[in-house]
Amino acid sequence: MNNLKAYQVGDCDVVAAYDEEGAIRVLEEVCGYPDGEFSHYDVKLVSSERLDSKQAFDIDEGVMIELESTLREDIAAMTEPAYCYGWE
User: What is the model's pLDDT at position 39?
Assistant: First the structure.
């Protein structure tokens, strides 16, 4: 059974992890942040609304786009913690 959850870490990154500490580790490893850059205060579960949305804002085009799958579906298919996406 996949127990991965979607966490927002900091202001603009979403990762799949088993817990808050794992979410921080994923972001630090993938994005090259130094150890200790984030704490549990910087981590929150992604809302159900965002998990189930098939719409996203394309920053480059300045428009809403339709996604092929939801974040919930993407995470359900994952087998290990991973970086999902970010924005600036």
Answer: 95
The single-letter code of the amino acid at 31 is C
- Cα gap 55→5, rounded to integer Å: 19
pLDDT tens profile 28-86: 999 899 999 999 999 999 999 999 999 887 777 888 889 899 999 999 999 999 999 88
Q: Kindly report the CA angle at 56 between 63 and 43, in degrees rounded to 5?
A: 135
User: In angstroms, rounded to a whole number, what is the distance separating the alpha carbons of residues 47 and 30?
Assistant: 23
C-alpha dihedral sign at 49, 55, 57, 62: negative
pTM recorded for the entire structure: 0.88
* Sign of the torsion angle spanned by Cα atoms 83, 70, 80, 10: positive
Backbone angles phi, psi at 67, to 5 degrees: -90, 155
